[in-house]
TrEMBL record:
One of its GO terms (molecular function) is succinate-CoA ligase (GDP-forming) activity. SUPFAM superfamilies: NAD(P)-binding Rossmann-fold domains, Succinyl-CoA synthetase domains. This is Succinate--CoA ligase [ADP-forming] subunit alpha. Residues 4-100 form the CoA-binding domain. GO terms for cellular component: succinate-CoA ligase complex (ADP-forming). It is an enzyme of class 6 (ligase). It comes from Methylopila capsulata. The lineage of its organism: Bacteria, Pseudomonadati, Pseudomonadota, Alphaproteobacteria, Hyphomicrobiales. The active site is at H248.
């Protein structure tokens, strides 16, 4: 069973008429995702990709029964789009937009407090339940249905790990890209809690990187929860120069707790198996699952 989405998930796209929205929504529909409409202020009443377009999220929700939204809106307007979806009580919102201003994301986090919405992102590659639905921009082809949940801050490494897990004959229950920006919605800890509660997820891969303290928060939760499911982690950036951004807006290690070594130590202390290299994540998870059976 997937987390966050299933075959009954009804998706709208905010920013559907732009190039990115058009391209990725087309791929999502080809994958089998139930996309039911789009939102573009000023273009309500038209159609795009044979889907109805609405001026507002609330109108789209009322007309289509949508319970999820994916956002392809430029950074300067992305926060307003997220807040509109939150106020429309859309249960799941995925934001692909990268480098949303941090002060804007603080406003989004305030809107999330006490709401009915789970926000994935910003700067997320999305959520993928193999063979069920794709809500994002990730490449497909190497994924397989299975029992390994993947939560990641890195889109490219997610694709690599998905391929390894499939090659190991395990497959994935769901992959979730929490987002690479410093301030985002759903956290690694939140995803772990969902995966631990999912009876069909047998093990979890956590892909982290330098910057922030999210991996330490996940480690603390693992120590408290004491899950029976094995957890394998890959933390990248051990050799990154200090005080220099490394691609992701959130990947900046100033040293101390934000460094890869501190994150690895915290996870090891929580009983997490650390993959020795990016090329051995699938094998490490296969070995871990074999020891639990």
């Amino acid at each position: 069973m997937a987390i966050l989405l299933d075959k009954n998930t009804r998706v709208i796209c905010q920013g559907i008429t732009g190039w990115a929205g058009t391209h990725h929504v087309t791929q999502m529909m080809e994958y089998g995702t139930k996309v039911v409409g789009g939102v573009r202020p000023g273009k309500g009443g038209r159609s795009h990709l044979n889907l109805p377009v609405f001026d507002t999220v609330s109108a789209a929700r009322d007309e289509t029964g949508a319970n999820a939204s994916i956002i392809f809106v430029p950074p300067a307007s992305a926060a307003a789009a997220m807040i509109e979806a939150i106020e429309a009580e859309i249960p799941l919102v995925v934001t692909v937009t990268e480098r949303v201003p941090q002060l804007d994301m603080i406003r989004v986090r305030e809107a999330l407090a006490g709401s009915r919405t789970r926000l994935v992102g910003a700067n997320s590659q999305g959520v993928l339940a193999p063979g069920v639905a794709k809500l994002g921009v990730m490449a497909t082809g190497s994924e397989r249905p299975g029992g390994v949940g993947i939560v990641s801050r890195s889109a490219s490494l997610t694709s690599e790990v998905v391929a390894q897990v499939s090659d190991a004959g395990l497959g994935q229950s769901t992959t979730v890209g929490v987002g690479g920006d410093p301030i985002h919605g759903l956290s690694m800890r939140d995803c772990l809690e969902l995966f631990f509660a999912d009876p069909e997820t047998e093990g979890v891969v956590l892909i982290g990187e330098i910057g922030g303290f999210e991996e330490q928060e996940a480690a603390e939760f693992i120590r408290e929860a004491k899950p029976s499911k094995p957890i394998v982690a890959l933390i990248v950036g051990a050799h990154a120069p200090a005080e220099r951004r490394m691609g992701h807006a959130g990947a900046l290690a100033i040293g101390g707790a934000a460094a890869a070594s501190a994150k690895i130590a915290a996870l090891e202390q929580a009983g997490v198996r650390i993959a020795p290299s990016a090329g051995l994540v699938g094998r490490t998870m296969a070995d871990a699952l074999a020891k639990t059976h």
